[in-house]
Amino acid sequence: DGDASIGAQVNYQITGIDPGAGLMRATDRVLEEYELDGWRVQTGSGPAMTAALTRAYNNEEPIIVTGWTPHWKFSKFDLKYLDDPKGIYGDEEFVHTIVRLGLKDDHPAAYEVLDRFAWTPDDMASIMVMVEDGMQPTEAAASWIADNAETVATWTEGVEAVDGDRLTLAYVAWDSEIASNNVIAQVLETVGYDVTLRQVEPGPMWAGVADGSADAMVAAWLPTTHADYYSEFEGRFEDLGVNMVGTRIGLVVPAYMDIDSIEDLNS
Ligand code: PBE
């Protein structure tokens, strides 16, 4: 019914992802700051969110999801971010590489590669699309690496090879991080590392690097998304800086929905 409010159309529900995601914490603040009384954010997972979005989109039904860029959903569907005039989701986000204290001394070659690692949202999105189209993440990462040898060479050139040293990367199974971690793991393997990808929840990802049980993570979304985790563990990790510029988080809806701003959710 075109006359019903947006809230009534979607049952006053925002389709969220896993509870530890920075995006979910930010969305809880959005409900408070925009006084979206009676609304709730449904917890789930990345795959559950994209399944709900796919179902709604194919039926041209209204839906509001917690979304982020880069993501394959923007290649498959015509979507838009809702304006966030209060700036709760921040502005442009940057993905940082974070390593454990002491990594530089223990594994200088890995430290060097991780320090140089940098790519673009389009690079990451291209892998996400391959995986969404059915390719295994390892194959999709290998295919991207083969097609981007020059970029990859800037991360590894002149780095002294090692012989099977073990390295553990902590990551969360968000589609974006499945892409980045498969790439960096394979690149570290070409330098001679034996890399374990340890899939964890967001809190343990940060805690693992802070307590040294993981060597590194390439999935720190800042300054807004993981601000709480960053300050919680500050001083117990080394921030190697930005590996990707131009990312973003927010509320995302199909372009066919007649709504442009989070403020519209209150009318
Ligand atoms: N994300 C993807 C994560 C960071 C990367 C936006 C779902 C989060 O919200 O913590």
What labels describe this entry?
267 residues, alpha/beta, D-Maltodextrin-Binding Protein, domain 2, Dipeptide-binding Protein, domain 3, 2 domains, five-stranded antiparallel beta sheet, two-stranded parallel sheet, 12 helices, 9 strands, 41% helix, 21% strand, binds 1,1-dimethyl-prolinium
Question: What is this structure, in a nutshell?
Answer:
The protein has helices spanning 6-9, 22-33, 46-58, 73-76, 103-106, 108-116, 121-132, 137-147, 149-156, 175-190, 202-211, 227-233, and strands at residues 13-15, 40-42, 65-69, 79-81, 93-99, 166-171, 194-199, 216-222, 238-254. The protein has 267 residues and is α/β, with parallel strands linked by helices.
Overview of the molecule:
- The protein is an alpha/beta fold and 267 residues long.
- The protein folds into two domains: 6-91 and 249-266, Glycine betaine-binding periplasmic protein, domain 2 (D-Maltodextrin-Binding Protein, domain 2, 3-Layer(aba) Sandwich), CATH 3.40.190; 93-247, Dipeptide-binding Protein, domain 3 (Roll).
- It is built from twelve helices and nine strands.
- The chain has helices at 6-9, 22-33, 46-58, 73-76, 103-106, 108-116, 121-132, 137-147, 149-156, 175-190, 202-211, 227-233, and strands at residues 13-15, 40-42, 65-69, 79-81, 93-99, 166-171, 194-199, 216-222, 238-254.
- The strands form three sheets. Strands 3, 4, 5, 8 and 9 form a five-stranded antiparallel β-sheet that branches. Strands 1-2 form a two-stranded parallel ribbon.
- Helix 7 (121-132) crosses helix 8 (137-147) and helix 8 packs across helix 10.
- The radius of gyration is 19 Å and the shape is globular.
- The model has no long low-confidence stretch (mean pLDDT 97).
- The structure holds 1,1-dimethyl-prolinium (PBE).
- 1,1-dimethyl-prolinium binds next to helix 2.
